[in-house]
């Protein structure tokens, strides 16, 4: 099983399904087409009973810096289209969390905004020590749209989540590991080997046992996550359709500081 497109690549390695974000020239940004492609590959991997795990990684210097801003602008003024855009990401990331496969993110370089949201939905995260993590939505008048407002506080606690949301600062891989945002930070040159060893350890274990441990742990923590995700869309949609967001995106593209009216 192997898939290659301009958006992602996928293949099976040992007993692991691998998805590779393959738009390094666009910093591996996420779009409806990318979400659809990831969801399709997840379906194929889940149907293969020989697989124990799923690894998501990326080509180039950086893991993922967020959403495709061209697409964000195209849906920003239509509530129905914007909701479809947001729900697509929710759908795929919830599937990651509910999948019988153990999901592992291999992170290098920048992991920001939507990339952070993708990473947080994975069961384990191994990152190179030079990686940086952050949520820069607030810098440009945006709000998290793919679960960040709900998952980040659950992973690192309210104070640290608000620190990242409000300060829009980036943290190091070492700090992310200390916070519990990622599983482990390793030397950059050892990243590939560390992830391969982790995935190999799953391949010798009971897939049923692994899946049940994941299910029970996540069910215990989920609580009101679905309600929280709904609130994120309901409250976030008007903000994402605002003039502030248009100005924020324009400022980002022009590499200048935004000038908000409010």
Automatic annotation (TrEMBL):
Pfam families reported in the protein's UniProt record: ECH_1
**Which UniProt keywords are listed?**
Isomerase
**Can you provide one Gene Ontology molecular function annotated for this UniProt record?**
isomerase activity
* Keyword Isomerase among UniProt keywords: yes
Q: Tell me the PROSITE patterns matching this sequence.
A: ENOYL_COA_HYDRATASE
Q: Which PANTHER family match?
A: ENOYL-COA HYDRATASE (PTHR43802), IP11341P-RELATED (PTHR43802:SF1)
What family does this chain come from, according to its entry?
A: Belongs to the enoyl-CoA hydratase/isomerase family.
Protein name stated in the entry: Enoyl-CoA hydratase/isomerase
